[in-house]
Amino acid sequence: MTQLLEAIMAHGLAHPDRIALDPGHGSPVPYAALAELVGTNAAILRDMFGVRTPAAMQSDYGTQQAITELALLEAGIPVLSLPLFFTPEQTKHALQACGARLISDCVPKERASHRESAPSPHLPVGTARITFTSGSTGTPKGVCLSAEHLLSVASAVVEAVGASHAGRHLALLPPGILLETVAGFFATMLAGGTYVCPPQAEIGLGAPFRPDFMAMLDAIDRMAITSLILVPEYLAGLVTAMERSGRRLPRLTLVAVGGAHTPPELLRRARALGLPVRQGYGLTECASVVALEDGSENEPGSVGRPLSHMQVRIADDGEIVLEGPLCLGTIGAPREEGPLATGDLGRIDDQGRLWVEGRKSSLIVTGFGRNISPEWIEASLLARPEIAQVMVYGDGLPAPEALLVPATPDADLTAAVDAVNAALPAYARIAKWREAAHFTPGNGRLTGNGRLRRAEISAAYCGPEPDFFTRLEAATVRERLAFLAIPQLQAGLNGTITRQAYLDYLAQAYHHVKHTVPLMCAAHERLRHRPELIAALDEYIEEEEGHEEWILSDISFAGGDGEAVRHSEPHPATRAMVDHAYRRINEGNPVSFFGMVYVLESVSVALAQRGASAVAANLGLPPKAFTYLTSHGALDQQHMAFFAALVNSFKDPADEEAVVRMAKEMFGLFGGVFASIALEPAHEAA
Question: CA gyration radius for the chain?
């Protein structure tokens, strides 16, 4: 029996009715019942998997997901942790690398025939968890961790913060992230608290890399949460939401922040709002947390003192070196004995606190011979509310340069850079900057825990000339931000719309989708002299034929009248969007059609991934009411790679300009379609 199940059983005996798992909606699970459920599920899973075949989990939060997580640990089955935001290619790579079988349903139904297989020759002995991490560069590798190691870290976290903070902990980081599993879930169970684990869409995180921070703030308040683990970007968004709304969260007793460097100014703003923020430091190889502030620090910036299970020292070149419990190795490569050289630079002050000051491998050496840590400048830039993301580069250049992602459609990035430069020494000031599109795990430019993948970003933006698709994304980032801010779209992505609003959306979707093939045919006619584009249009036409009928079917299964919609008139906003597309194709450069393709396909991926599941969960509609969104979203994910290759083949600047112009216009016009939908109070939903 693991230490974790022993603790759960002890809490169940002492306080049988104390809530262990709270899904937000639905039935909570008390400790007494949890202990029994874990034991029963562990036996079933052991029969299903044996103890040598890894089980892969890739599911949203919920009580059954949590029970299965605990049961797999108790059964001794290695668990492959797969975040929901992994692409199909990343998921396939991870499954193949360790020979794992995906648990498609977190609910073990019954005992199955024993499926023992030969042990994977790639996993170190004792592996309990496999988590893929890429740091900032390189091919992702599966780090293997033992159960003893995972629980030793969770115990050290409880020891460091005290069991008094074991109140109601809300799972905010994406499912599958090691930090939340160990320092959030396991630590809460050891300490006897309540793990609040609603689906991410219910707390504003249907898209974890584009959160709805007001929805997050509402959820923390409504669910009476007392502790959180955040990455810096989540903390920044929550702080901004609190500043703008004037709301406070007095129930919180602990807000741990880690995963990346947190700007000291952000910590000051958070503490000024009464948030009990403690910055921490950890690595996947160390099963997450290594050091954590103890809550007494007045000067923000350190990551606190090492936890009791770890020893930290600073090498002669400033690198942070760790000794203590470490990972078993990576898939196919057991770890060599000895301390871990982290690649991070830092110092330990006279109070024993660790300060992380940059990455050894990220150091910029300018043409003037000055060594500069980009994280230092990035922290200053990220402290500006105008900037959502930043990457500083400039090795070998006369001075640092930056890629900046605006936080809002009207962000004044020039003023933000000027303000930061005024406080930096001359050698560290940003000499040039460019606007970029968001860095996400989906485009391979961000790791799962929010760290920049510098090599991938540099390859996209910092060569002689970025490809056209990259420039298209960057050129339209502000229009996309304005589009995503439309209240009706946000409500749809978070599932907080009524059935009538969903039916109204489908009706307008029908009225523009029925023109998709005719628009393609119009472009086809005017591009007969461009055989490479004709071939692409032929493929698109074949794929898109009849999709408007999917929508009418969805309307019927959602309780609407599909035939009435077929014979109805579109909203003026929908008509305006379609008419504009015809004008651009028939009277301007017909290549502009591909700007419309870019907008509709990139938006449909977001709607399919977030909106469909969230709306279905909240409205209780059947899967047949969402065939357009789910099927079209899956198709468009594949189409985007095809689209990128197609537009990157354009040679004429006039074609590129036409696509960018149309994309900018379409974000506005398509936004008008969403804005035309009446939002009714959610309690009126059928």
Answer: 26
3-state secondary structure of 225: coil
Maximum alpha-carbon separation in the chain: 79
CATH of the domain at 291: 3.40.50.12780
User: Is 422 within a domain?
Assistant: yes
Q: Looking at residues 474-484, what average pLDDT do you find?
A: 95
Q: Mean pLDDT for the chain?
A: 88
Cα-Cα-Cα-Cα torsion 399, 402, 408, 409, nearest 10 degrees, comes to 90
Joined together, the tokens standing for residue 384 give 């500006």
Domain assignment present for 468: no
Domain that holds residue 117: 3-356
State whether 342 and 412 are in the same domain.
Answer: no
DSSP string, 34-86: HHHHHHHHHHHHHHHHTTTS-EEE----SHHHHHHHHHHHHHT--EEE--TT-
Same domain, 339 and 399: no
Token readout for 163 is 């069991």
Residues 255 and 238 in one domain: yes
Q: What is the pLDDT of residues 222-232, one digit of tens each?
A: 999 999 999 88
- Residue 213, classed as helix, strand or coil, is helix
Cβ atoms 386, 406 nearer than 8 A: yes
Q: What is the pLDDT of residue 450?
A: 80
Helix axis angle for 516-526 and 593-606, nearest 10°, is: 150
For residues 83 and 554, the model is more confident at 554
Which CATH number belongs to the domain containing residue 447 in this structure?
3.30.300.30
Tell me what pLDDT residue 136 has.
31
Are residue 82 and residue 193 in the same domain, yes or no?
yes
Q: Tens of pLDDT along 266-293?
A: 899 999 999 999 999 999 999 999 999 9
* Structural domain count, the chain: 3
Q: Is 397 exposed, middle or buried (0-12, 13-18, 19+ CB in 10 A)?
A: middle
| CA atoms of 601 and 326, how far apart (whole Å) | 44
Pick from 630, 450, 643, 614: which is nearest to 536 by CA? 643
- Strands 254-257 and 277-283, bridge-based pairing: parallel
CATH code where residue 579 lies:
1.20.910.10
Same domain, 539 and 614: yes
Answer yes or no: do 61 and 23 share one domain: yes
Q: Beta strand pairing status for 55-57 and 79-81?
A: parallel
What does the pLDDT read at residue 315?
94
* 0.70 exceeded by pTM: no
The answer to whether 374 and 150 have CB atoms below 8 angstroms apart is no
| Neighbouring C-alpha atoms within 13 Å toward the C-beta of 66 | 31
